[in-house]
Automatic annotation (TrEMBL):
UniProt superkingdom: Eukaryota
Domain LIM zinc-binding: 55-122, 123-182, 185-244
Cited InterPro entries: Znf_LIM (IPR001781)
Organism: Papilio machaon
A GO cellular component entry from the record: nucleus
Keyword Repeat: yes
Keyword Repeat in record: yes
The name this protein goes by in its record: Four and a half LIM domains protein 3
GO molecular function: transcription coregulator activity; zinc ion binding
UniProt cross-references to SMART domains, sorted A to Z: LIM
PROSITE patterns documented for this protein: LIM_DOMAIN_1, LIM_DOMAIN_2
Alphabetical list of PANTHER family matching this protein: FOUR AND A HALF LIM DOMAINS PROTEIN, PROTEIN ESPINAS
Length: 244
């Protein structure tokens, strides 16, 4: 049994930051539809009046200024893609803290600060419940840190190792054999079946293929007839000699 490697690297997720820039840079960003947020100022002069009249805060009736179209000279506005906000209205949808010039992540028309986005959407390890920032493995469609994916009994790391499970819990081969496997009547070692191990069962006894031999001459009895002699098994030839 194996676990799949998680290829997703949360640290590579897009984090956008805001910048205060001049009008020429704003014009280029708009024309090129750049994936940046623009922090600019409501200007008092006549040149800016037409631009200010186009403004409408993306929060609409939830605008923190009380009027989505309100513009005050000297205050700032935020623009991202085709939407605009008053500076203090440009805040995380979860914690409501203003983004300012910090990192943010847009998702489905909502804006998240980096911390809230991670809390809400990041992949978390099923064992420790902490965010998996890189790497990790999946087992039964559940994500684990590589260091958290360990044997249920001995805590040995199972990432990249062969293992088996019982009651949906993973075990290394050694622990599974010691705890749950049948034991060979001859050598008393576990019969795990891992790696294609073959074994013989007769009544309530079990043997590894290599251990299933005549107690007298040590010839292999796999696929052959045999005779029980108390707790021993012997081949027909040795049984004849013993009778004679």
């Amino acid at each position: 049994m194996s676990a799949d490697v998680l290829s997703d690297d949360f640290k590579s997720r897009l984090h956008l930051t805001t910048k205060t820039v001049g009008q020429e840079r704003i014009r280029r960003a708009r024309e090129n539809n750049e994936d940046v947020a623009i922090l600019s100022m409501f200007l008092p002069n006549a040149t800016a009046e037409r631009e200010n009249k186009k403004f409408c805060c993306a929060l609409r009736d939830k605008c923190l200024q009380g009027d989505a179209r309100k513009t005050i000279a000297g205050t700032k506005k935020m623009e991202y893609k085709t939407r605009q906000w008053h500076e203090k209205c440009f805040c995380c949808v979860v914690c409501k803290n203003p983004i300012g010039t910090k990192s943010f992540i847009p998702r489905e028309q909502e804006i998240y600060c980096a911390g809230c986005y991670e809390d809400k959407f990041a992949t978390r390890c099923v064992k420790c419940n902490k965010i998996i920032t890189q790497g990790g493995v999946t087992y039964k469609n559940e994500p684990w840190h590589r260091e958290c994916f360990t044997c249920t009994h001995c805590d040995t790391s199972l990432a990249g190792q062969r293992f088996t499970s019982r009651d949906d819990k993973p075990y290394c081969a050694d622990c599974f054999g010691e705890l749950f496997a049948k034991r060979c009547t001859s050598c008393t070692k576990p019969i795990t079946g891992i790696g294609g191990t073959r074994f013989i069962s007769f009544e309530d006894r079990h043997w590894h293929n290599d251990c299933f031999i005549c107690a007298q001459c040590s010839a292999s009895l796999v696929g052959k007839g045999f005779i029980t002699d108390g707790q021993d098994i012997i081949c027909p030839e040795c049984a004849k000699q013993k009778l004679m």
